Amino acid sequence: GQPTAEVLTREAWMRLERELPAGITLERVAIRETPSCGSAISRPLT
To answer: Could you give the CA distance from residue 46 to residue 38 in angstroms, rounded to a whole number?
Structure first.
């Protein structure tokens, strides 16, 4: 089956964070499968 939006979002987050240059912080990753179905991850503000 297809991975869920949540799984895809986590995967995207991990891949993007690995590729970012030093000093660049990922703040939010969002994936939308359909207008009513999607997932987002935000870094908690510290």
So the answer is: 25
| Amino acid, res. 30 | A
Tell me the sheet residues that pair with 42: 28
- pLDDT per residue rounded down to tens, the chain (46 residues): 888 999 999 999 999 999 999 999 999 999 999 999 999 999 987 7
What CA–CA distance (Å, rounded) separates 44 from 32?
Answer: 21
Q: What does the chain come to in residues?
A: 46
pTM for this predicted structure: 0.78
Q: Map out the domains of the chain as residue ranges.
A: 5-42
